Amino acid sequence: MFLNRLVGLFSHDMGIDLGTANTLVCLVGQGIVLSEPSVVAVKRGTSQVLDNGNAVGNVAKQMMGKTPGSIQVIRPMRDGVITDFEITRAMLEYFIRKVHGRSRFVSPRVVIAVPSGITPVEKQAVIDSAHRAGARKVFLIDEPKAAGIGVGLPILEPVGNMIVDIGGGTTEVAVISLGDIVTRQSVRIAGDDMNDAIINYMKRTYNLLIGEPSAEAVKIEIGSAAPLEKELTRAVKGRDLIAGIPRSATITSEEVREALSEPIQVILDAVKRTLETTDPELSADLIDRGMTLCGGGALLRGIDRLIAKETGLAVRIAEDPLTAVARGTAAVLEELDRPGVADMLESDEE
Predict the structure, then answer these.
(1) Which are the contacts of 182, defined by CB distance < 8 A and separation ≥ 6?
(2) Angle at the Cα of 195 (from 111 to 146), degrees rounded to 5?
(3) Taking the complete model, does pTM exceed 0.85, yes or no?
(4) Does 200 share its domain with 223?
């Protein structure tokens, strides 16, 4: 017990949004202290992280699509779950050490947000990765709950709160009341699938092969879910699939909207299915309260207007939607002693 207290003096408890696209770390009382891509560069065929274990996050993302055959850039999270245990551990360890100034005498308590639809085996993989990365105590919280707390919804009260978290690998849709999820949909369609849809559209329409970073830039700069007041255009560079030489093409925001229609429809269907299974009294609350969007996908132009049109409910985009889940995890750590808060978590002792 004394040793645990002593270790705690040298550690900062942290909340982690371990996302498919980005990992965010939030320290109690300090806010977001790290936001980097969930990407690692390794020696091909191994789990050996380059640059003495430092080729992680921003450094590794700069290498995407530009590496020689001896180097592989890996995203160890896919669809919200761990696909490469060893590399995820190395990534988590790097982020934890970076937050603690690279001191090795750290052993924080950690709250990690996970998709609500993952299996017990997948949850255990997250816990094991965090422990091996240096955490002394690990709590898991469902992403919709963390997001609800992060955006300031009163999820512990007996009232319906609806959250739509569109991340990189999963979209989480949930109605929460009294600290628990009443009904939910977790679909493994989100921002990454939007990028893939743009890549496939460029292949199909322009015979142009582009990389994921280019597709993401197109989505961010001219992507939309609903018609824009002024439609946009953008030059896209890649490799001609027929001639095999570098080439560029100009794409319009109308075309990008067409490319994104399929993954957006899946997200809309998840929202509708959640509403269809919501109890009448909670549905009545939602008429008054509407729903809140967060995650990177909430920044897609017009997605709030499209969901509002399709559901008839008020839709608001959370302030700073990218950090909502991470802020929620840190808030949970601050209020672990508050009645009902600990009940929302799963710990490594269960």
Answers:
(1) 160, 174, 175, 176, 278, 279, 282
(2) 20
(3) yes
(4) yes
